[in-house]
Design goal:
With 192 residues, the chain is α+β, with helices and mostly antiparallel strands. It is built from 3 helices and 12 strands; from the N terminus they run ββααββββββββαββ.
C-alpha cells in the first residue's frame, strides 16, 4: 500500500486529499496473511467459547479497495467536501464508497450488525460478505434507501430517526443481499 495525493473534480467542486492505494502485486500477500491469521485466531476464540473477533479493517476495506481499484481515504485528509464520512474514492470521477462487511461460518451464517455514523454520506454503499467456509468474498452494492429501515423495533425507530438523534444506527445488511447478485466475487488463497 502506498500513500498517494489525488485531485478530482466532481459536480464543479475540486476534491483533493491523500489516500491509500492497494496493489494486487504488493499488498495481496499481506492482506491474505492477515485474513488467514484472523481466521486461525477465531478458531481459538471459539474453542474457548468466546465470540469471534470482527474482521480486521485492513482486510474489510483493503480487499474491496484493491479489487475495485479505488483509494482508501481518511476523512481528515480530504478537502472540498462538506462531509467526508466514506471509506474510499474513485479518483477518476470523485464517486465515494462506504464499505460495510460481515464474515460468516457454518455456525454463524446470519451475519452481524454494521454500524453507521450519524452523518454518513457516500455515493455507493458496498457490502463485503466474507464466507469463511469457502474463503470467498462477495461484493454487493446496496441500492435500497436505508433511511427507512427499522433499526430499533421496540421503539419503531428508523435508520434516519437515529441519525437525527446523533446516534450510530446499527443493523444487519446481509439479509438485504438475498435478492442481489454480487458485482464482484473473489477467492482468497493462502498461496498468494
Amino acid at each position: 500500500m502506498k500513500s498517494v495525493n489525488f485531485k478530482v473534480e466532481k459536480n464543479g467542486t475540486e476534491i483533493s486529499g491523500t489516500g491509500d492505494l492497494f496493489s494486487q502485486k504488493e499488498d495481496l500477500f499481506s492482506l491474505t496473511r492477515i485474513y488467514f491469521g484472523w481466521k486461525e485466531l477465531n478458531v481459538y476464540q471459539e474453542a474457548m467459547n468466546v465470540r469471534r473477533i470482527n474482521i480486521p479493517e485492513s482486510v474489510s476495506e483493503g480487499i474491496p479497495c484493491m479489487l475495485m481499484n479505488v483509494l482508501r481515504t481518511n476523512a481528515k485528509r480530504i478537502k472540498g467536501l462538506e462531509h467526508s464520512s466514506f471509506d474510499a474514492i474513485d479518483t477518476k470521477n470523485g464517486e465515494t464508497y462506504q464499505f460495510k462487511s460481515c464474515s460468516t461460518t457454518l455456525n454463524n451464517s446470519k451475519g452481524s450488525p454494521s454500524s453507521f455514523g450519524p452523518r454518513s454520506e457516500y455515493d455507493h454503499l458496498i457490502y463485503a460478505h466474507f464466507d469463511c467456509e469457502t474463503d470467498i468474498v462477495k461484493l454487493y452494492e446496496i441500492t435500497e434507501n436505508i433511511n427507512n429501515i427499522i433499526v430499533n423495533k421496540q421503539k419503531n425507530e428508523t435508520f434516519l430517526d437515529q441519525c437525527k438523534q446523533g446516534r450510530r444506527p446499527r443493523f444487519n445488511l446481509l439479509p438485504y443481499t438475498k435478492n442481489l447478485k454480487p458485482f464482484l466475487t473473489y477467492q482468497m488463497k493462502k498461496e498468494n
